[in-house]
C-alpha cells in the first residue's frame, strides 16, 4: 500500500481538529456523582441550592438533566425557583408541553408572567387557547397590567388570530392602561394581516392619543409586513418635528416591510446626524437577509461612523449575517505579516 505523506501544516491541522473534538466532548461530560448531587439537591436542598443546580445544568448544557429544570418549573414549592427555571428553559430554547402545563396550573402572578414571556419568546404555537382564556379572565384586573400585557404580546407572537377582534376592542378602548393597549397594537400587527392597518393608522394619526400607544401602533403597522406600511410610516420618519419615539418605532416597523424601497429608506436614515435615528436604521437593516447593498453600508458604519454605539451595532448586524470583522482583520494582518517575511531560497548552483 502507498504511504500517505502529510505536510507538517496538515499534521498540525489534523491534531488541532482532534483536540477540539476531544475538548468539546469532555466539556459537556458531567460526572455521575455530580448528576446524583443535582438530583438530590433538587429534592432536598434549600431554594438557593436548587437555583444553583438549575444554573449549573444550564451552564454545562447537561441535556440529560434538563428534566430537572422542567420539573422545577411545574412543581417547585418556591416561586423564585419556578421563575428561575422559566428563564433557564428560555435560554436553553426548550420547546415542550411543559410550558402549557405550567401556565395552566401556576398561581403566582409574577411566575405566570415569566411563563407567558417564555411562550412568547419560544413561540409555543399551541398555547393560544390557554393564553386567551387567561386574558379574558384577567383583563379587568388593574393590578395585573404587566401580566396581561405580556399575555397579549405572547398571543401576537404565536399568531393566535382568533383573538384579533378581542384585541382590536382593547386597543380602541381608552379606559384600558396604555401598556395593555400598546401590547394589543403590537399583537394585532404581528398577525400579518393588512386588514388591521386602518385601526392602527387611526391610532397613529390621532394627535390626541397617548404617544406611547401611537408609537406602538406605528410599529404594529410595520409588523403587518404590508407594502402599505411603507407609505404610512415614511412621512412620520421624515418629519423632524414629529415625536422622536414615534419616528424610531416607525423605523423599527419598517424592518418588517421587505423590498428595495424600504432598504433604501433605511440606508438614507443611516446617514443622518441624529445618532438615535441612525442607530435604529442600522438595527433595522440588520434584520434583513444578506444583501450586498446592506453589507456595504454596514461595513462602512462599523469602520467609520463617528459614534461608537453605531459602530458596535453595525458590527453586530454583520456578525448576525455571518460576517466577522475581527476575524477578517486578524486574517488580513496574518497574511500581511507572512508576505513581509523574507523568503529563503535554496539553489544547487555549483561554485566555479
Describe the structure using short key phrases.
single chain; mainly alpha; 0% strand; flat; disordered N terminus; disordered C terminus
Distance between the termini: 44 Å
Kindly state the percentage of residues in helix.
55-70%
Biggest sheet, open or closed, and with what strands and sense? none
Stretches where pLDDT is under 50 for at least 5 consecutive residues are 1-6, 11-27, 346-352
Classification by helices and strands: mainly alpha
The average pLDDT score comes to 89
Strand content: under 5%
Q: What sequence of helices (H) and strands (E) makes up the elements?
A: HHHHHHHHHHHHHHHHHHHH
Computed over alpha carbons, the radius of gyration is: 27 Å
Net shape: flat
Count of helical regions: 20
For the secondary structure, the number of strands is 0
What does this structure look like?
It is a single chain. The chain is 69% helix and 0% strand. It has a domain at 274-326. The two termini are 44 Å apart. Residues 1-6, 11-27 and 346-352 have low confidence and may be disordered. The chain has helices at residues 8-27, 32-44, 47-59, 66-75, 79-91, 98-105, 109-122, 128-138, 145-157, 164-172, 178-190, 197-205, 211-223, 228-238, 244-254, 260-269, 275-285, 292-304, 308-320, 325-340. Helix 2 (32-44) packs antiparallel against helix 3. It has 20 helices and no strands. It is an all-alpha fold and 352 residues long.
Layout of secondary structure:
Layout (H helix, E strand, L loop, with lengths): L7 H20 L4 H13 L2 H13 L6 H10 L3 H13 L6 H8 L3 H14 L5 H11 L6 H13 L6 H9 L5 H13 L6 H9 L5 H13 L4 H11 L5 H11 L5 H10 L5 H11 L6 H13 L3 H13 L4 H16 L12
Helix pairs in contact: 2-3, 3-5, 4-5, 4-6, 5-7, 6-7, 7-9, 8-9, 9-11, 10-11, 11-13, 12-13, 13-15, 14-15, 15-17, 16-17, 17-19, 18-19
Amino acid at each position: 500500500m502507498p504511504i500517505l505523506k502529510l505536510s507538517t501544516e496538515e499534521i498540525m491541522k489534523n491534531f488541532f481538529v482532534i483536540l477540539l473534538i476531544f475538548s468539546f466532548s469532555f466539556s459537556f461530560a458531567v460526572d455521575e456523582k455530580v448528576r446524583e448531587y443535582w438530583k438530590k439537591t433538587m429534592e432536598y436542598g434549600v431554594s438557593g441550592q436548587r437555583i444553583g443546580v438549575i444554573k449549573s445544568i444550564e451552564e454545562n448544557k447537561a441535556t440529560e438533566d434538563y428534566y430537572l429544570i422542567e420539573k422545577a418549573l411545574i412543581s417547585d414549592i418556591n416561586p423564585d425557583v419556578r421563575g428561575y427555571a422559566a428563564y433557564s428553559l428560555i435560554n436553553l430554547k426548550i420547546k415542550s408541553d411543559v410550558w402549557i402545563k405550567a401556565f395552566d396550573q401556576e398561581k403566582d402572578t409574577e411566575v405566570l408572567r415569566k411563563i407567558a414571556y417564555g411562550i412568547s419568546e419560544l413561540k409555543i404555537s399551541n398555547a393560544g387557547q390557554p393564553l386567551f382564556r387567561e386574558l379574558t379572565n384577567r383583563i379587568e384586573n388593574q393590578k395585573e397590567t404587566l401580566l396581561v400585557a405580556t399575555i397579549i404580546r405572547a398571543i401576537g407572537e404565536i399568531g393566535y388570530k382568533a383573538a384579533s377582534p378581542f384585541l382590536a376592542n382593547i386597543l380602541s378602548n381608552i379606559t384600558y392602561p396604555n401598556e395593555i393597549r400598546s401590547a394589543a397594537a403590537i399583537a394585532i400587527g404581528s398577525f400579518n394581516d393588512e386588514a388591521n392597518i386602518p385601526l392602527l393608522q387611526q391610532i397613529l394619526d390621532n394627535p390626541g392619543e397617548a404617544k406611547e400607544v401611537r408609537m406602538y401602533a406605528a410599529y404594529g403597522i410595520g409588523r403587518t409586513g404590508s407594502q402599505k406600511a411603507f407609505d404610512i410610516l415614511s412621512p412620520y420618519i421624515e418629519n423632524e418635528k414629529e415625536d422622536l419615539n414615534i419616528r424610531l418605532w416607525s423605523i423599527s416597523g419598517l424592518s418588517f416591510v421587505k423590498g428595495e424601497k424600504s432598504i433604501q429608506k433605511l440606508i438614507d436614515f443611516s446617514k443622518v446626524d441624529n445618532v438615535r435615528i441612525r442607530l435604529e436604521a442600522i438595527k433595522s437593516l440588520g434584520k434583513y437577509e444578506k444583501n450586498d447593498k446592506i453589507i456595504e453600508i454596514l461595513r462602512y458604519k462599523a469602520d467609520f461612523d463617528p459614534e461608537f454605539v453605531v459602530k458596535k451595532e453595525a458590527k453586530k448586524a454583520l456578525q448576525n449575517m455571518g460576517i466577522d470583522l475581527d476575524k477578517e482583520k486578524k486574517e488580513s494582518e496574518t497574511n500581511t505579516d507572512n508576505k513581509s517575511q523574507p523568503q529563503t531560497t535554496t539553489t544547487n548552483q555549483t561554485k566555479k
